[in-house]
Design goal:
The protein is mainly α and about 140 residues long. About 80% of the residues lie in helices and about 0% in strands. It has 4 helices and no strands. Helix 2 packs antiparallel against helix 3. It starts with a helix and ends with a helix.
């Protein structure tokens, strides 16, 4: 019974407030409360996302350069091997190592990039800004970096 009374009181307070707002407006039309857009929140969300992507791009680039340098050195050494069978093994090994390194580098880049965008989606929703969902198209563009 106590919950019922509390609910009734809360409902009456809400109705009274909306009626007072309508009277203050000067007519009997319902008052529409404007949504306050937090544009600073969106700016922060964009900076947070892009800083994470920039940091990941630096790591990706540095890792790829290191893998290419390692491949270069391994291939150079392989081509210095005089025994044809051993040379072939060394060449294959150099390419296999590079291939697996590149795969790990790309997977890491992809996961960090996706994680930054997932977090941005959470942050964007918390900002409650009209049109903020339009910013998701950039995720496809980032996927091609």
């Amino acid at each position: 019974m106590n919950k019922l009374i509390k609910g009734f009181v809360v409902a009456n307070v809400i109705l009274s407030l909306s009626g007072a707002a309508a009277l203050a407006k000067g007519n009997n039309e319902p008052v529409k409360l404007k949504k306050v857009e937090d544009l600073a929140c969106m700016q922060s969300a964009v900076v947070k996302r892009d800083d994470a992507i920039i940091a990941a791009a630096k790591v990706h680039s540095d890792s790829l350069i290191k893998a290419l340098e390692t491949r270069r050195d391994a291939l150079k050494a392989a081509w210095g091997v005089t025994n044809p069978e051993e040379r072939q093994k060394a060449l294959k090994s150099a390419w296999d190592i590079f291939r697996s390194s590149k795969k790990r580098i790309v997977e890491s880049w992809r996961e960090v990039r996706k994680s930054a965008w997932r977090q941005f989606q959470v942050d964007r929703k918390a900002c409650r800004v009209h049109g903020a969902s339009d910013d998701h198209v950039g995720e496809g563009i980032d996927a091609n970096l």
